[in-house]
Amino acid sequence: MAVDQETLVSLGKLGAVAALGMSALGSCFGTGAAAAAAIGGWKKCYAQNKSAPFMLVEFVGAPLSQTIYGIILMGNVIKAALSGTAFPVLLGAGLMGGFAMGLSAWLQGRAGAWAADALAETGQGFGNYLMALGVIETVALFVLVFIGKTIS
What we know:
Layout: H1 5-47, H2 56-61, H3 65-82, H4 87-122, H5 126-151
């Protein structure tokens, strides 16, 4: 049984949905973990009558960029679907790319949670903590670039 072009394009677009959905899911988990730790850190500071570092917000927001990468990958998958790239490739690219970016976001948020706790307690090390989060971010960037190149 032959499948028409419109159905194949639709199946390819499913990869686009997966790219965005899975990367955003990871961002949700990551920001949630980091936010909980930041709130706890602020609470510790307030309980000790110390000023609460606003910079903890940076750790909370760091995992959001993976959703942006998911949006970019989604656009690349849709473009490839419209140009006739085989749908299994696009579905795989979206699923695996979205999963890898989402996992990066989740683990970045977990690391951000520890960074928020450490900064709230010591008031030191912000740059070091941010560099560690940047290394985790790099995984998502590699995924975006190389999967994007594979399907284009």
